Amino acid sequence: KQRFVASPMAASTKLVNPNAEVVTKTQSLLVNASAARGLQSVLKSNLGPRGTLKMLVGGAGQIKLTKDGAVLLKEMQIQHPTAMMIARTATAQDEMTGDGTTSVVLLTGELLKTAEHCVSEGMHPRVIADGFDLARDHALEVLEQCKRPVKADDAELLSSVARTALRTKLQAHMADLMTDAVVSAVTTVRRPGELTIDLHMVEIMTMEHKLGTDSKFVRGLVLDHGARHPDMPKLLRNCHILTCNVSLEYERSEVASGFYYSSADQRERLIESERKFTDDKVRQVIEFKRSVCGEGESFVLINQKGIDPLSLDMLAKEGIFAARRAKRRNMERIALACGGVAVNSFDDLEPSQLGKAGLVYEVSLGEEMYTFIDEVQGDPHSCTILIKGPNKHTIEQIKDAVRDGLRAVAAVLEDECVVPGGGAFEIAAAASLERVLKPNTQGKQKFGVQAYADALLAIPKALAENSGFDVQESIVKLQDAQYRHNQHLGLDLDTGEPADTAAAGVYDAYRVKKQYLHLSTVLAVQLLLVDEVIKAGRKMGGGGGGGAAPGDAYEPQD
User: Fold this and answer.
1) Contact at 8 Å (CB) between 73 and 91?
2) Cα–Cα distance for residue pair 396/391, rounded to 1 Å
3) How does strand 216-218 pair with strand 221-223?
4) What is the pLDDT of residue 539?
5) Rounded Cα gap, residues 250 and 179, in angstroms
6) Chain center to CA of 29
7) What SS3 state is found at 556?
């Protein structure tokens, strides 16, 4: 029997490629909506400080405990094409703003869910999409009304922002412990007058040692290597720090050369002349150290290139702490933290090129060595957050949370505003859409506006559900309180009652809310307007062929 396809568009596709797999019209929306709902159900339980954890197990038995949406989407193997598209959009949100990954997935899934209901009643997807666009623009206007200005010196508000971000990733006591470290790090690297904050100047160093509660902020730097000579001092005070990019090891000539000698004396003179080039540079450092160091002062040399054993021995005899092969990024951080400049030659050394630190010491953990540059003087613009933990997955969990906290605080300082958290914005936006925009919208686009308002409630609903409260009761209480008091009220996750979340210190970053409204709406509209899903692409690596030419005859498929 011959197989016929009912849809004209599907029939056209089959004419071009008889092996194509086609999902048409309403079925394509069902496929996309079901994929979005599936991804939404996975991440829904992780939203907020009361969210649950996911355990990710790798092929080699690696374990990672997390409720960070970005980590989950990056680590999970997602095969459905629609779910992959949503996951990529959500991870783009994390890369741009540092937070809001789970919110993007939830809102996208809820928008497609409400749109699916409208389409099933006979609405055209284009009408719903136009309503979504109108509702998004109005929601952004509500966001502008919700935002509150922030002063750069308001440490309490910055701590509230960091605490809100960290508590969604960590346990409450651990999040409160890391809050001060995150705020101190961002305010340290921030330079007055600059529009952006360079978070690369915050070194996040990890040590598999002690407990997570022993993590701390270091107003200086922690290097993941130490001195390479046993006789070098392990603790120095009042240090002058010289950073350089000069080779202090024996180097072979760049051209092929040979040397013939007829006596042992000639060979000794050859070795002495080869060493003299390197030894002269080491002596320059030693003489410079003697000229700048007074009584009770020490000298530290940090070199980006190598230092050979003989040079290390000369420096150790002089009491100089020398670290070799420092990472390039640390060379820049040391100069910003301690002052001074990195030098490429020892010919014209000056005291102004030196950095200053009150304390430099070395810590050894098994075979690993760490150098702490602490008690830096002046106004440093680089620092370190030292993360400790008994195992790798604990360290990774804290590290992911700290990265998000840093970006949240930096976003608030750059935007100079915050938004009340706890679902306050979503409740206010949904109420405004129903009471202001919907009555003033003509035609069938009203249904798209109403669908958008219903979808925005997915965030406070998930917060209530994850906190163990009755979802409908909590949402109705919030909506009633919003109507009576006409102020931005969110959900108190301890009691399930409406509360002034801003007064409680629960804030979200303005750019996170703005970006997730844009991304979710654009992606939902694009998926909503898909009327045919065709699996008929060329095979990867299949070479040039595979396409059908016009006029080709095909045999009927049995």
Assistant:
1) yes
2) 9
3) unpaired
4) 56
5) 48
6) 32
7) coil
Residue 293's identity, in one-letter code, is C
Which candidate, 336, 320, 254, places its Cα nearest to that of 284?
A: 320
Residue 484, SS3? Answer: helix
According to the model, what pLDDT value does residue 10 have? 53
| Diameter of the chain measured on Cα atoms | 104
Q: Which pLDDT tens digit goes with each residue over 312-331?
A: 999 999 999 999 999 888 88
Both tokens of 418, joined, read 């915050």
Place of tokens 């002690």: 210
pLDDT of 255 above 80: no
3-state secondary structure of 491: strand
| CB count in 10 Å sphere of residue 540 | 5
User: 259: left (phi > 0), else alpha (psi -120 to 50), else beta?
Assistant: beta
Which pLDDT score, from 0 to 100, does residue 371 have? 92
Q: Return the bridge partners of 205, or none.
A: 386
Active site residues: 68, 101-102, 404
Q: Which residues pair with 387 in a beta bridge?
A: 206
Cα–Cα distance for residue pair 110/520, rounded to 1 Å: 10
Tell me whether strands 54-57 and 383-389 are parallel, antiparallel or unpaired. unpaired
| pTM reported for the whole predicted model | 0.82
The CA distance from 226 to 322, in Å, is 8
